[in-house]
Structure to design on (264 residues):
């Protein structure tokens, strides 16, 4: 009788482990959502592109090339610059833009205390409508001797042709690690740290925290070339989003549990 009872207990335990294992596999299969990771990358890349366009306009590198009509009002306080792309402009980087980017600034980009505000106005990039306010403040030099900035993005939105909206807010620190010694913008490299939150195209909330500094390389058309973000969609497990090792390839790898997904 004792042996029979032990056998029954063993069978029950085995069945429990099998059911539990199947449930875990099923849960992992159902928790394969990568929309939040993809949308976080999409919005951040579009917001970083605005700064690249502002840098290009400020250093006059667009003169004689495809790009916006640039108007500067130096009499206003703070000073104001308008980048006007009209109804459709094929830019030097191969992207099609329309609408305007409005920039105000209180001083030079390299001066401690300068505050720069960037606001798109009916602005589209490659068919995506980009909205939101970006505020950049020069905080001087850090312990490494590099200029660094606080970057606050509020009410950012990217609306694609499918009419679905991706929203995004972020608080970041931006360290300028390369390109400061030249007047050009396209050799600039920054490291970003900080956090963000948003709502993806399917209406799911998420939060994102940079665990390994994001490398923003303005010579790369996709901007972000390295770094790691931990992203948590509402009600789901933490995703690890790896932007790579510095190669300009527009690819991220999203890891959920023991499964990885490559997204371009």
């Amino acid at each position: 009788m004792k042996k029979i009872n032990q056998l029954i207990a063993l069978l029950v335990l085995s069945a429990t482990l099998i059911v539990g294992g199947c449930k875990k596999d099923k849960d992992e299969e159902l928790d394969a959502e990568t929309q939040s990771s993809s949308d976080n990358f999409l919005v951040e890349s579009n917001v970083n592109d605005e700064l690249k366009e502002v840098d290009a306009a400020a250093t006059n590198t667009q003169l004689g090339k495809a790009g916006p009509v640039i108007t500067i009002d130096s009499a206003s306080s703070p000073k104001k610059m308008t980048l006007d792309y009209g109804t459709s402009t094929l830019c030097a980087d191969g992207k099609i833009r329309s609408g305007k980017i409005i920039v105000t600034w209180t001083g030079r980009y390299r001066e401690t205390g300068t505050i720069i505000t960037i606001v798109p106005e009916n602005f589209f990039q490659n068919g995506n409508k980009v909205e939101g306010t970006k505020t950049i403040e020069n905080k001087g030099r850090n312990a490494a001797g590099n200029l660094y900035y606080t970057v606050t993005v509020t009410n950012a939105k990217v609306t694609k042709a499918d009419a679905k909206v991706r929203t995004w807010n972020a608080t970041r620190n931006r360290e300028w690690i390369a390109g400061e010694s030249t007047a050009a913008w396209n050799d600039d490299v920054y490291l970003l740290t900080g956090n963000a939150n948003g709502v993806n195209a399917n209406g799911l909330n998420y939060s994102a925290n940079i665990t390994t500094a994001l490398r923003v390389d303005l010579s790369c058309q996709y901007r972000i070339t390295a770094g790691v973000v931990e992203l948590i969609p509402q009600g789901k497990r933490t995703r690890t989003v790896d932007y790579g090792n510095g190669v300009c390839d527009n690819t991220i790898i999203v890891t959920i549990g023991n499964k990885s997904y490559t997204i371009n």
